[in-house]
Amino acid sequence: MTNTKLVTLKTPGGDRAAGRPGDGPRAAADRGADGPRPLGGRVYIETYGCQMNINDTELMEGLLVDEGFVSVDAPERADVILVNTCAIREHAERRVRGRIGELQRHRKRRPELVLGVTGCMAQRLGPRLIEEAAGVDLVAGPDAYRGLPELIGSIRASAIERGQTLLALDSEENYEGVASVRREGVSAWITVQRGCDHRCTFCIVPYVRGPEKNRTPQAILAEARRAVEDGFTEVVLLGQTVNSYESGDWDFATLLRAVGRVDGIRRVRFTSPHPNDVTPQLLEVMAGEPTVCRQLHLPVQSGSDRILKRMVRRYTSEAFREKVEVARREVPGIALSTDVIVGFPGETEADYEATLGLMRDVRFDDAYLYKYSMREGTPATRFPAGDFIADEVGSERLERLIGEHRAIQHEINESEVGSEREVLIERSARSPGDVLGRTEQNKVVAFPGDPCRIGTYAEVRLTGTTGATFMGQPC
Ligand code: SF4
Asked: Which secondary structure element, helix H or strand E, spans residue 421, and what is its range?
């Protein structure tokens, strides 16, 4: 599972037809939305969830732009509003329901407007979403996006009724040949794999995204070369268990090396690997290829073997610790991050203490920490009712774990103050006159700089830390 820090992404920075950072997206928009009425209509997509979803929004934009649609940056200006959703936690779905309710006011004002829900929540709830949420005109799951332009066109032309569903999972659909419309940003996210063959008992992903499907290395390399042509120097390879990738003779280590050697690429990252597929070959590539960032997200989920077994994670706490040890030995300077779920059904105080112990021993650079969220249709829902942890107990455990992690992170980052790092500048910081960027180890640094340098690299001395973020000065 990709780490699922909840993000809401609204199409930023003006409208675009097929704009990319290298070719002036705003100019493209000027030719589109503000010119003659676009053929398909003006589409606004709002994205919730993980990076995979953001990447899917880029795919949808690519498909729609190809069919004569134009992206706009506000629902007020749209003929079509799509909400690309996440189903990983109940909280994420609640937010989306609230947002669908809010968006109804646009539909009331302009009854011709088409409002659709896409992504994992759409796949999970399907027609229920249409029945429950008056005013949803279509739902489309993650394998059905190719059908969107035609479906939207037919609804807009009143050729079919509203309330349509596109939900077939397709074991062949990898969206080959679709050029994503990349958002502003300095990293090109490239999906190399869709779906998942695991069945972690808490996780809805295999049910809404289907089994693992890997793209061909040729298609991935071509996309990486296109990203370079479009001005990107950092690429991030994306998959639910990205390092289980295989295609013909290619495994993930081979793919990572090849992408890292594409001319013009300066940094390659990947997310999210499964601990079991961290192989010696992968670590060798991470240690030996200068473009491959020494940063590894390694979701542990729990430090208790009993809970890991209940989660069907397929490793023990000891095996995980060994992976960490080998990774740190083979890739000096590597930064490690993780995901943890507390309050999983059956988690005793002793199990929770085992998680705390693992966190203290491993000392992750970063961690995404969550309270268990029951997902209808997942195996974990079938544990006996008495196994479910009271909400307040889960919250208290989460709070303690966050405190523990923050203290560790602060100590780690304090020890790096004074060192120099190469930073890829991503955006303006909140503090006036500062920009924000990331080091090779994926650590965030704010330092004085001109926003015109976004997308370029700077040598920065780390001068202090708030705990998670660094302050710096250009060297
Ligand atoms: S089933 Fe397990 S491995 Fe697959 S996406 Fe979910 S958490 Fe990750």
From this structure: strand 420-428
